[in-house]
Each structure stands twice: as structure tokens, then as C-alpha cells.
Amino acid sequence: MKQLSHLTSLRLRLTVGIAAMSILGLSGVVLWISWQMQSILVVTHKNNTRYIVGRFPSDVEIYSDMVSLEEGTQKAIDNLSNPQTLLWVKTPQGEIFAQSQALQMGMTGSNLVSLTDIPPQPELQKVNNRYWLLCSTKLVVKGVTLGNFYIAQDITKDQMMFWGVMRSLLIISVMATILMTIAIAWYIQTSLTPLKRMSQMTKDIDPETLGKVQLELENAPSEVKELAGTLQTTLTRLAHAWDNQRQLVSNVSHELRTPLTVVSGYLQSTLRRGNNLTDLQREALETASSEADRTVQLLQDLLDLARAEHGGMYFNLETIVLNELLTEIEGMVHQYPLPVTVSLPTQVIKVKGDKNRLKQVFLNLIDNAVKYSHSPEPIILKLSHNKQQAKIEVCDRGVGIPLADQTRIFERFYRVDEARSRNIGGTGLGLSIVKTLVEGMGGTIHVISGPHQGTTFTILLPLF
Ligand code: ADP
Asked: What is the pLDDT of residues 274-291, one digit of tens each?
């Protein structure tokens, strides 16, 4: 998943996009330069060829006034030839009439003169692994067509030079592209750092830290600063809303708890003294009384949580011998529908904690274990310790908790199967209170569970 997010990251997209555009631009420039250089090279030689084509007939005419036509033609050829420029004239029958000296030697000469498809416009051809600019034209002297005049210009040296320059240009372009891509990647990473910092600052925000976060980004671009400012405002508003909501829950719980406790008290005393009540009336009063008790408990839990969140939960810390505390709890739960087996080590294990709060924690977990077990298997309460911590496990063989829900059961009002849990009773606040209390005493709580295999809650408390 992380790898996938790397692939879709803004950094990668910008780097690839800008690098691709730079490569395209650079390749365009290189192609244009190469095309220009090739054109300049060929045009220079073509102009030279055209110059010879234009001058040759008049040279022949001038020389043949002094010597014979054949000798005049040969003289004109010798005059205009050089090692790179070879000339020859063929009669209309295709026989050599006159030619440059160099053509009479070697394979290249005979290959050139034997070419039949030489065009009238200068054209680049490869003969014997060398590059030749070839062209032909009709040779007309004093109004008489002598035959065809051919020019072959060896431009291999220039062509090689051109390829050399192109090779260097390509190497420089590739190196420039690599350097440019590295520079672009570095620049983009630096530019995106403020965004990364902002994401790190906001990653661990939870309801407790909502109002305390300060999104200060030094040297960030103005757009990112603006975004951070907007986020800061949103967080502040959220923190206010969250505080208001908590205050409301706390106030409502507080306001409702007192009258409901009074109602519950009246209901219980009426039940106690109501000897002349009918069965129906007694049943109605009992239901009302138990619902009132349940609601008072719910309001008490909500108040406890609200106090814990504001750091106002008071712990009456004292040294507690866990072996004694668990024995006491064993005595308190003997009337539960399921047997509770307490397993204690021989050595005494002491912790620092609030005795009543710890009792509340264990009774809550045992209560849950009984509620969510359908088999007659006993609930096991096991005490042990490691070097630094006391370990208390509450194990049942009940319905278990699916893996996906295990991280959420400590949230307020979270219940695994809402419909089933409602029939069983409870408010969905028990475990969040347990967690708050355990953490308030410096401990931790974990759960291991599997559907239909049972559940084990493990509490670790620092040893005294
Ligand atoms: P509740 O009042 O619903 O018991 P809790 O906060 O105590 O609320 O528990 C949250 C949910 O976790 C319960 O609704 C239940 O689904 C699940 N749960 C808690 N303890 C156990 C257990 N021992 N076995 C199976 N499920 C449990």
C-alpha cells in the first residue's frame, strides 16, 4: 500500500512530468541542431557541385579552342578535380570520354563510373563505405551534345565529423538530462517538505490534542502557509465543538443523575414497604427501578469518563497486594451464574493503585466475561508477574470478539453486535472506563480473542 502511494505521490508525478518535458525539449533542440548541421554541410557541397556544373562547359569550350575537344575536356577535368572532387564525361553510348586521374585507380573509381542512376540534382549516396554527393548533367559544348558530365564529391570526412559532433551532443544531452532530473527531484522534494511537515504535525492529532496543535511552518511557500492557516482554524473550531460536546454530556449527566437517584431510592423504598401491591404493580415497579439503576450507572460512567478526560479523575493511591484483592473479588462474585476460578502465585504481588477503582475494573471484566459466555466453562482470573509488571488475565470461553472489532471495543458506546448486546444489557461504556482507569494508574490493557474460542483481557500494572 505504501509502495502504491509512492507511485501516486505528487513528488513522483511532478518529477516524472517535468523530467519528461525537459527530455522532450532537449531532444527537440538536439534534433533541430543535427538537422541544421546536416543541411549546412550538404548545402555547402551542393553549391560547390552546382558551381562546377555551371563552369565546366565553358572551360571545355575555352580549352578546345586551343587543343582538340577530347584534350580540352580532359584539361578542364584536371583543372577542376581534386582528391575530394572526381569528374568524368561519358559519350551518349556510355563510353568514358574523359575522367579524373584518381578514377582510373582503385575499386572506388570503377564503382563510381559504373553507376547508372546518378540524378541531375546533387544526392548523397554511399559507395565503397564512403559518402559521395553525386550528380550528372548533359554536356553541351558549342551547341553540340557531347554526352553526360558526372561529378562525385567525397564528403566522408565532413560526414564523420558530423557524426562525431552528434555523438558528443547525445552524450552531453543524456548527462544533462540525468543531472537535470536529479536536480528537479531534489528541488521538488525540498518544495514539498512543508507539506510533509504539515502532514506529520496533523497525523497524531486526537480529541485530546485537537486544541493544542500549532501548525507553524517557517519558510514555507505562501500557499502552504495559507493551507496550514485554514487547517489551524478548522482544528480550533473542532476543538471548541468537541469541548462543548463534552461539557454538555458532563452537565447533562450531572443534572440527570441526582433526580434519577432520588427516583430510584423512592422506587426501592416503595417496593420494600409495599406489602399490599398487586403482582402487576410490583413487576412494573421492579422494571422501573432496574431501568432507573441502569440509567444512573450509565450517567455515572459518562461522568467518570468526562472527569478522566479533563484530568479530573481522582485516584486514591495506596499499596495493594493483588493476591488479597483477587481473593476478595472471588468472594464477591460467587453468586454469578458462572463459576469464577482465581489462580494465584505463591509470591506476593504488590502494585500502587486505587483499590476501589481496581475492583471496578476486575468486576467490569468478569461481568463482561459472564455476559458474553454461553457455555458453563468457568471464568479464570489469573495473577502472575514479570520483571517490572504485574499481570492479571481475565479469560472466558465465550462468544469471542472478531479481529476487526478488537481495536474498537475500547471506544465509547462501541458494541460488537448492537442487537445482541442490547438484549444482554450494558451501555458500551464499560471497556472505555476500564481502559481509562487502568491507564490512569500507569497500566495497559490488551485483548486476545477469537470468535467462539473465548476472550482474554490482560492488564499489566507497574510493580510496587
Ligand atoms: P457493554 O456494556 O456492551 O458490555 P463494553 O464496553 O463493556 O460494553 O464492551 C464493548 C463490547 O465488547 C461489548 O458490547 C461486547 O460486544 C464486546 N465484549 C466485551 N467483553 C467481551 C467478552 N468477554 N467476550 C465477548 N465480547 C466482549
From this structure: 888 899 999 999 999 998
